[in-house]
Design goal:
Blueprint lengths: L1 H5 L1 H10 L1 H14 L3 E6 L2 H17 L3 E3 L3 H4 L10 E7 L5 H12 L3 E6 L5 H5 L2 E4 L12 H17 L10 H11 L1 H11 L5 E5 L3 H16 L4 E4 H5 L11 E5 L4 H15 L3 E6 L9 E4 L8 H19 L18
Parallel strand pairs: 1-2, 1-3, 3-4, 4-5, 6-7, 6-8, 8-9, 9-10
Protein name: SIS domain-containing protein
Organism: Saccharopolyspora montiporae
Keywords: Repeat
Length: 338
């Protein structure tokens, strides 16, 4: 897991070099002019889909939905998807339920695209368009490099659909290297702070909501810490009542609009006495007990960077709590669901 975390700056550079290939798929989508976008994914890829949802709704101003695969696989429904763009996201490209959703969507009129780390996989073959995230083989069960490469691939695809050149992503390899290098001491301090905690909540707003969800999953699957993720807005609608001085909170704070919107949430959390660790380019402005800064970037690509210290934190906590982050109990690299 440590080695794969460290590979990410080079993976970003390689993916950026393949932007023209992604742009060709984007041209097909732009010509199709979808009226609606449907995203299908599971696990970490579901969090990448949440990131894509924000990108599409903000940058393309199209309505977006997250598919429920069981509608197809368990209930046998075949909704009319004429004029819909269906994007299926899977690192392995082998999940039977996502394959079924993609095949059914294509039969029912959707333009289908796969985003996967496995060219030639069943999902890749089933979709009309394929975007390959080019992360290489990932050996650790916990997804790190495949997750961030998927985020970047989705950004490059959606940015190209709107006619962009990927300029906001151009500096990500160097920024990622800086985040991994400069954040090492702050991450290690966070490991020491939270190594014994049993109650942890993650939160973010806007694009960073995806990182909050991914953070909770990484902590649960590697260190067996039952973390819960909430959008900052949802947190204020009830769950904040369960937060107290025994709760640790990881707050994903960009320097953009999402980070600004989170400040009210952090004030409410502070009043409950919780320990807050702010992570991101906006961490310095957040009300927090501990901060892990991340280099500044355009907010729309910030999740690619802000998840890097989260991965390092999950790795460190797993080791300190006696777990094996490369092979967590009860998990396999490829999960086949229906």
């Amino acid at each position: 897991m440590r080695a794969e975390i460290d590979q990410q700056p080079d993976i970003f550079a390689d993916l950026l070099a393949s932007r023209e290939e992604i742009a060709r798929a984007a041209a097909r989508i732009a010509a199709y002019r979808p009226r609606f976008v449907l995203l299908a994914a599971r696990g970490s890829s579901d969090h990448a889909a949440l990131y894509a949802k924000y990108l599409i709704e903000v940058l393309l101003q199209l309505p977006v939905g997250l598919a429920s695969p069981s509608v197809t696989t368990v209930y046998g429904a075949r909704p009319d998807l004429t004029g819909v763009l269906l994007i299926s996201i899977s690192q392995s490209g082998g999940s039977p339920d996502l394959l079924a959703v993609t095949e059914a969507g294509r039969e029912r009129g959707a333009l289908t695209a796969s985003v996967t780390n496995t060219p030639g996989s069943p999902l890749d073959e089933a979709a009309e368009l394929g975007v390959h995230v080019r992360a290489g083989t990932e050996h650790a069960v916990a997804a790190t490099k495949t997750y961030t490469a998927t985020l970047l691939a989705l950004y490059l695809l959606i940015d190209a659909v709107r006619g962009g050149t990927g300029q906001h992503a151009a500096g990500l390899p160097d920024l990622a290297a800086a985040a991994l290098r400069d954040g090492r001491a702050a991450v290690e301090e966070a490991v020491q702070r939270y190594r014994s905690t049993e109650h942890l909540v993650t939160t973010g707003r806007g694009y960073s909501s995806a990182t909050a969800a991914e953070a909770a999953l990484k902590l649960a699957e590697t260190s067996y810490l039952p973390a819960r993720a909430y959008s900052g807005a949802d947190l204020l609608h009830g769950p904040v009542a369960a937060i107290d001085a025994d709760t640790a909170v990881l707050a994903l704070c960009s320097s953009g609009a999402g980070g600004a919107a989170l400040r009210e949430v952090l004030q409410a959390i502070h009043e409950r006495g919780a320990e807050v660790c702010a992570i991101g380019s906006g961490a310095a402005a957040a009300r927090a007990s501990h901060r892990i800064p991340v280099p500044d970037s355009a907010e729309e690509v910030a999740p690619v960077l802000e998840v890097l210290p989260v991965q390092r934190l999950a790795l460190g906590l797993a080791l300190h709590r006696g777990g094996d982050p490369d092979s967590p109990r009860g998990l396999r690299k490829i999960t086949r669901t229906r």
